[in-house]
Amino acid sequence: MTPMSSYWRGIALSLPFALIVIPFGLLFGVLATEAGLTVGAALGFSAAVIAGAAQLTALQLLMHDAPAFVAVMSALAINLRMAMYSLSIAPHLKGTNVWQRAIAAYFLVDATYAVAHSEYEKSPDMPRRNKLAFYAGSVTIVCLPWYPATVVGALIGDALPVSLDLGFAMPLAFISMFAPLLRSLPHISAAFVAVVLALGFAWLPLNLGLMVAGLGGMITGAVVETKLERARA
């Protein structure tokens, strides 16, 4: 398979996520303008952070007059999963130059990781050039529409009917991306503990329960993985 074929395969396997990314981006654009951001500021927010869940969380906290520190820490807690994604996908990009790794890191989001990791696991002997091409195909569908969707949402936010609830995009996105990936005990354990903690600490103000759940889930996954590796050794 040529790199171009891998690129088109990345596009094909990522196409379903366009149905999630576009309404997700529209939702953020709408909320950004409701919070008082200009169209340019909303686009800059998306370009700088490119992490929908963290963006929406920070924006909603700020809309409810939460301290900026809490909004930033909540966004960081949500995005800590990106560190785990990086550790998982880095071996597949070994040998690439610094610019290629920097660009890959910038576009490493939930959907690009889910699609790329699944493909790399199925084809461990895929040449590095093909892996990069496949990743680029996923980025084309998952990440590039995020920016225009944000702009369109910011421009037409006031014109959208109140009955049109785009909030479905966030839970649908995460369920569709990660439910198929819960195949190992560490993954299942992390997800279970995160859900339990999120529900148990939902009473905490300013969405702090989300931070507790994220950290608890990651710690659980790491502990279970460590114990399994020791058992195998």
TrEMBL record:
It comes from the Bacteria. Keywords: Cell membrane, Membrane, Transmembrane, Transmembrane helix, Transport. Its main location: membrane. The keyword Zinc does not apply. The keyword rRNA processing does not apply. It is a multi-pass membrane protein. GO terms for cellular component: plasma membrane. It holds the Pfam family AzlC. One of its GO terms (biological process) is L-valine transmembrane transport. It is found in: Cell membrane. The chain crosses the membrane at residues 12-31, 37-56, 68-90, 132-156, 162-181, 188-204. Belongs to the AzlC family. This is Inner membrane protein YgaZ.
